[in-house]
Amino acid sequence: MKLAIDEAWKFQLLTYPNPAVGAVVVKNGAILSIEAHRKAGEAHAEVNALKAAYLKENPNSRLKMISAAHEIHEYLLNNCVDFFESCSIYVTLEPCNHIGKTPSCAQLIEKLKLKKVFIGSLDPNKEASGGKERLITSNIDVELNIMKKECDELLLPFLKWQKNTFIFYKTAQTINGTIDGGYISSNQALAYVHTLRDKIDLLAIGGNTVRTDRPTLDTRFIQGNNPDVFIYSEKKIFDKTIPLFQIKDRKVIISENLFTLLDYKFVMIEGAYNLLEAIIDKIDYLVLLISPKMKMGKNILSNFECEFEIVHENFIGNEKIVFLKKLNKNH
Amino acid sequence: MKLAIDEAWKFQLLTYPNPAVGAVVVKNGAILSIEAHRKAGEAHAEVNALKAAYLKENPNSRLKMISAAHEIHEYLLNNCVDFFESCSIYVTLEPCNHIGKTPSCAQLIEKLKLKKVFIGSLDPNKEASGGKERLITSNIDVELNIMKKECDELLLPFLKWQKNTFIFYKTAQTINGTIDGGYISSNQALAYVHTLRDKIDLLAIGGNTVRTDRPTLDTRFIQGNNPDVFIYSEKKIFDKTIPLFQIKDRKVIISENLFTLLDYKFVMIEGAYNLLEAIIDKIDYLVLLISPKMKMGKNILSNFECEFEIVHENFIGNEKIVFLKKLNKNH
């Protein structure tokens, strides 16, 4: 389950508006596949894991060429039932019971007759839930609450998207806290930031950062969608030759009313820490990219104190990405 | 092997003058134990792992009460030979072939007739080497170079101790780079720092830090040995009521000659970054304790630029410990 959770985190925030979910298929104590849901509109984690597990033992299968979710479902159901009877699956979230364009994941697992299903969190989404009941009714062995706390943690952005707004603060620094002095992040980390920008509804940034850095705030590394921009500024006049204003089909809001952010469902904040200070109580995650170098330049000057919990961390190349959650002292 | 490596890192620097070594015992695809060498004078990693593996399946064995290395050897050899014939062991460093107060680890594994031995690094110590030859001669299946790069990385302090001086820089900061403004680290992290101080030969610190912080630089959290202190300072006059001068049997050197550090084998540097700047080329590791909070206070002001590679990281409670190695651009 730990492997399924770590795989899901690689696509955390990138599956918007879907939850980040990971799945691992095992057979006779050996791990056959570790997969995740990667992107809304693509196959669910279970489907990716079942496909990869079958391919692990049948590398020349025609399945290799198939990527659309409904086609994978169809192939597995028509060609691979026997294969999965000795397999178990670990999945961070209860398999969906929602039958839309494809059969539900619970129904797929039921028909493939998997030996056992280990589930982390139960599906909080009423429309898709009922997966575990379907599996149990079909006499599939189901074990619930495996690493439940860690699996529940994965769902935070999804739960916020469903109800209101998920806001995260992204910043890049060196190990000694430098935030300026030229590019800090590698191209690989920048490509990741552009992938985030492609997913979000709104990018918020401080007015001083816009005036000083003259940023573009686009997604040129990945040719993605360019988000709307909210500039947090008392002064409303900006030099319109700053590249961010040149992006086609982009709405730019210049305002000091932070409630505007709540009109959007998925907001990333970039830039200086004075904006973080103003909005710290509304931040769901702080996403920190840390480059393992010391660099001269301005350090992060925070005018407030705040404690965090590290909810996940990983590498992007040789740099770190750390997901932090504000620690609520009243807990 | 990854698990053996991570376990060894938990005791990195604490095994001085021995190398950090980890070992994992598996049986029929299941992990029975994950252990490390913890402290010079105590059992080697293999012995700890073999003991824990036997206890895992025989929890009430008298072996539980035995901790001296030679007694564990004796117990295993007299009571457990059959048990290990279906076991394999992963060990980050070639089992020693050096017979002193106890039989060598290679001889123990040979007599217990383990099925297979997976080795990371070969023993660079001529006196103890020859373990793999002994195992191969006894028809034990041996596989070498498993995660060799990562296992070799574990040996860096040991290799330096053998030849000359191992120097590491320890510092504590918040995620936003603050290094002062009261205690940064938790008591658990402070206890770890005191454990490091107990092992080292010499603690080096900047004169300004001594004058400003008036530190004790002792090991009161763990009642350990208090290291000698080197104060890097041009001005030689210090207020002798500063607590560090009150520690019994401690030698305090006040000097600006950094070559003095090379008279010792194991040196930790604490304190401000100006000393780091002066000695950066002699540093083997930067050990960074990072507390996941933002705090007002002085940020780290580095007057130089330097790139690092993260060689290992772990948690101490909810804080991070990160081992960094200076990246040599000429590589």
What would you note in describing this structure?
- Two copies of one chain form a homodimer.
- Chain A contains eleven helices and 14 strands.
- The first copy, chain A, is an alpha/beta fold and 331 residues long.
- In chain A, strand 4, helix 6 and strand 5 form a beta-alpha-beta unit.
- In chain A, helix 5 runs parallel beside helix 6.
- The interface between A and B is medium-sized, with 32 and 32 residues.
Quick structural gist:
With 331 residues, chain A is α/β, with parallel strands linked by helices. The first copy, chain A, is 28% helix and 26% strand. Chain A has an eight-stranded mixed sheet. The first copy, chain A, has a five-stranded mixed sheet with strand order 2-1-3-4-5.
